[in-house]
Amino acid sequence: MLETQAKAIVIGGSSGALDALGVILPALPRGFLVPLAIVLHVPPSKPNGLVDLFRATASLAVKEAEDKEPLAPGTVYVACPSYHLLVERGGYFSLSVDEPVHFSRPAIDVLFESAADAYGRSLAGVLLSGANEDGALGLSRILAAGGSTVVQDPNTASARQMPEAALRDGLAHRVLPPRDIAPYLVHFAAEHFAPGKSPVKEHG
Amino acid sequence: MDAEVTLDRAETGEFGDFLEAIFERYHYDFRHYAEASLRRRLAAALAHFGYHELSELRARVLGDREVFTELLRFLTVQVSDLFRDPSYYRALREHVVPVLKTYPSLKIWVAGCATGEEAYSLAILLREEGLLERTQIYATDIHPESLRVAEEGVYALDRLARFSENYLLAGGRASLADYYVARYASAVLDRSLKRSILFADHSLATDSVFAETQLVSCRNVLIYFERALQDRAIGVLHDSLCRRGFLGLGSKESLRFSTHAVSFAEFLPDVRIYQRR
């Protein structure tokens, strides 16, 4: 079950997000001890080539997130096509085939909201380039639960709609270009919460 | 799904109490469902009923069985297609059907059939393989309204393009149009398919085995359960299968973490078809 200090990072994006991740993931050092879960909108028919793509450049372990799999430190989990990816309070993933959200399955909101429930202020959410408004609601849940939020600077995004929707709603602690996101996450991973202030985790 | 209404973290105890109360009142057991997606669906139900607090919904649901029936629509998942995941059906046709042909009669169980798409897909496949006449398909679900829709075998016509594409990718030998007639905006499936299917109420969370079967298909059901309930359900599926019987799961489900894994061989791992030892 979860340590009280366990943290997690969730990342979402669609169009243009691969470019940003191509900058972010390689810049996360070996020894980075926080799990990351990524939802990207991909066409349902395509096999999940994202894992191979990320493996080629990341120094962290990369794999597809599996149903009921515990989140392990320093691992990058990629949502598989056609299923929503959710984080349970026990610190493990679930999949679902519930209706698409924002025409997407997996949807960023679904991952972000469930992770906010599970990790509270020990969660960082990163919303990248994209061409619809998925993720804004999820980011607001992360914020409400006390987590940290980062939105890609729309000026660096090839599709502005997704980051702009989040900024319009005032949901970002930080607005950063891709090259500054990994350093932010490294800082987030190293940060110690004051004793007694760490979030309480319910067990599965 | 409308997720504007959310159940916040403080409501954990209330959430558990709600599920407990439903179990006591109606004997539907959601207590060991995976919580995150259940919370999402419950939040959508709150929005639908126009409530902000779980306690308000709880009072309505416990006081009125019809409201509970309406709530069930949210708590259960009813998304499927004819021949969803064509590679699964193609594998059944190419590798499982030859074994099924060695039995003089067949019983097949579709566990968690929702609105019937999977059961009808199997019926079509078995008819094309000359097996339907000697097959009894049991298709079960916990949701009465889904079973009613399944029984009707009528689907929106605009879904048929995708169904047809799936059917062909699944190795269909004819045209899907041979199995339905279009009526206004609906496709009415061939009534004769239904003669081989018995739709019935059954819960993998609370009920037990009811027949000995040669094939159980249980797709995208286990993902909604916590691991302990997954194990219970797989135990029921296992006990239903004859020796060398087949178990088909969803494309992202596996027996790897189950205590029952040793009781099965990985028959076709790529499409998650297992064989009881």
Plain-language structure description:
The complex is a heterodimer of chains A (204) and B (277). By secondary structure, chain A is of the alpha/beta class. In chain A, 27% of the residues lie in helices and 20% in strands. In chain A, the strands form two sheets. Chain A has a seven-stranded parallel beta sheet, sandwiched between helices. In chain A, strands 5-6 form a two-stranded antiparallel ribbon. In chain A, helix 5 links the parallel strand 8 and strand 9. In chain A, helix 1 packs across helix 6 and helix 3 packs parallel to helix 4. The C terminus of chain A is likely disordered. Chain B is of the alpha/beta class and 277 residues long. Helix content of chain B is 42%, strand content 19%. In chain B, a hairpin with a 4-residue loop joins strand 9 and strand 10. The chains are: A alpha/beta (204), B alpha/beta (277). At the A-B interface, strand 5, strand 6, helix 3 and helix 4 of A face helix 2 of B.
Short note summarizing the structure:
The complex is a heterodimer of chains A (204) and B (277). By secondary structure, chain A is α/β, with parallel strands linked by helices. Chain A contains 6 helices and 9 strands.
Characteristic terms for this protein:
heterodimer; A: 204 residues; alpha/beta; Rossmann fold; 7-stranded parallel β-sheet; 27% helix; 20% strand; globular; B: 277 residues; 2 domains; 7-stranded mixed β-sheet; 3-stranded antiparallel β-sheet
